[in-house]
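Bumping my old thread because nobody answered last time. Still need a sequence for this structure:
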């Protein structure tokens, strides 16, 4: 039996793939699935090299995952009684000043050279397509490649797919301790109960260090980076914007007129309080892109802690304890990465060999 600890996007996707492959899988989640960081995601799915120093292996991982997203979503939606929104919506990369013109200009060249389809638009051309965009926007690059997924619907569809494939889900079940004999996994300890198991996959997000019994090679490798995000309501029939926009902040329109606006990037430990400063930061910058945004009603504020590995890279693979596997460090792209992480971790657990695409993210010996 395989035991997965943590029911976020990583744990659910890996669990579904393993159960689908005929393995007996139990997923233990201390609250409700998706309630950790995954609930806060803006659901943007697109590979993008954000700077010259951006890690090439991560970019390849993002591209491989993006290529799989359409099939991943279609298969999930076919299994779910509540299909979720997944669509290629396209994204504008906005330039409001000289610095942004230089940075996005370089990104434009790089992505065109590797075959991405991109349009360079003047500010006026952008406003012909998106009339509410600020007159201060000097230029924009449009990519049709960017997709978006409704992360709340995705969680429910994954839950159903996992159960439908024969997975066992235990919510409201905290794992208190990983049990090993030093070399081999023996089980996990819950409140008043021990679950014997020879294979454990830890997908505990930022809460890894709170779990007792974890080997030292996993200590302190995942840090929380707080992100606050806001949902506003636009008109469903005449939304203020039709496509994603990313500039000093991002705006993500959903099919039902909802507008996701984010985000902050904060080192605030495990604090998940939304703050006035966070909202001020988001809305002040959002107004630079879309001046009339301040008239929209606020629907909700969400906060998530991005699981962040060393150099902001994912961390996944085998550990030095037999039967113990680990996958985390999705940082700002955990939703994008979930199909490839599920596929690669399933192959690793079933064959014992990591596929080359995840080898660069192997856990380092200390
Ligand atoms: C504001 C914001 C916007 C984002 N936008 C995007 C985006 O547009 N696109 C994108 O790709 N990514 C985005 N991300 C990143 C993405 O949301 C994360 O990388 C991803 O959700 C992390 O998933 P996870 O499964 O690793 O962790 P989590 O979702 O945190 O799951 C971990 C789970 O483990 C459980 N758990 C922990 N310890 C235990 C235990 N001892 N016993 C039982 N259960 C336990 C927790 O309760 C939790 O449910 C965003 C993040 C934030 C904060």
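Sorry it took so long. Here it is:
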């Amino acid at each position: 039996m395989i035991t997965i600890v943590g029911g976020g996007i990583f744990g659910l996707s890996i669990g579904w793939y393993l159960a689908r492959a005929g393995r007996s899988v139990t997923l233990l989640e201390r609250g409700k699935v998706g309630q950790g960081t995954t609930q806060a995601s803006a659901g943007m799915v697109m590979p993008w090299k954000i700077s010259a120093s951006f890690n090439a292996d991560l970019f390849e991982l993002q591209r491989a995952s993006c290529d799989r997203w359409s099939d991943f979503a279609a298969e999930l939606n076919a299994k779910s009684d509540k299909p979720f929104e997944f669509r290629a919506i396209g994204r504008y990369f906005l330039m409001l000043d000289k610095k942004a013109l230089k940075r996005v200009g370089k990104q434009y060249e790089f992505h065109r050279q590797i075959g991405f389809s991109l349009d360079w638009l003047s500010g006026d051309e952008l406003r012909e397509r998106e009339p509410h965009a600020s007159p201060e926007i000097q230029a924009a690059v449009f990519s049709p490649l960017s997709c978006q997924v409704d992360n709340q619907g995705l969680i429910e569809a994954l839950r159903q797919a996992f159960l439908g494939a024969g997975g066992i889900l235990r919510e409201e079940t905290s794992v208190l301790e990983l049990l090993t004999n030093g070399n081999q996994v023996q089980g996990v300890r819950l409140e008043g109960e021990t679950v014997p198991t020879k294979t454990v996959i830890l997908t505990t997000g930022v809460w890894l260090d709170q779990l007792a019994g974890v080997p030292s090679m996993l200590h302190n490798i995942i840090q929380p980076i707080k992100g606050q995000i806001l949902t506003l309501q636009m008109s469903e029939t005449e939304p203020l914007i039709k496509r994603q926009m990313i500039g000093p902040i991002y705006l993500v329109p959903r099919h039902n007129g909802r507008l996701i606006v984010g985000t902050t990037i904060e080192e605030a430990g495990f604090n998940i309080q939304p703050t006035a400063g966070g909202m001020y930061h988001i809305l002040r910058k959002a107004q630079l892109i879309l001046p009339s945004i301040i008239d929209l009603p606020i629907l909700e504020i969400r906060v998530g802690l991005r699981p962040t590995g060393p150099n902001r890279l994912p961390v996944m693979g085998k550990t030095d304890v037999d039967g113990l596997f680990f996958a985390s460090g999705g940082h700002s792209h955990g939703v994008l990465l979930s199909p490839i992480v599920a596929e690669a971790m399933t192959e690793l657990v079933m064959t014992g060999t990591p596929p080359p695409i995840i080898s660069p993210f192997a856990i380092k010996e200390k």
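The two ends are 29 Å apart (CA to CA). Let me know if any region looks off to you.
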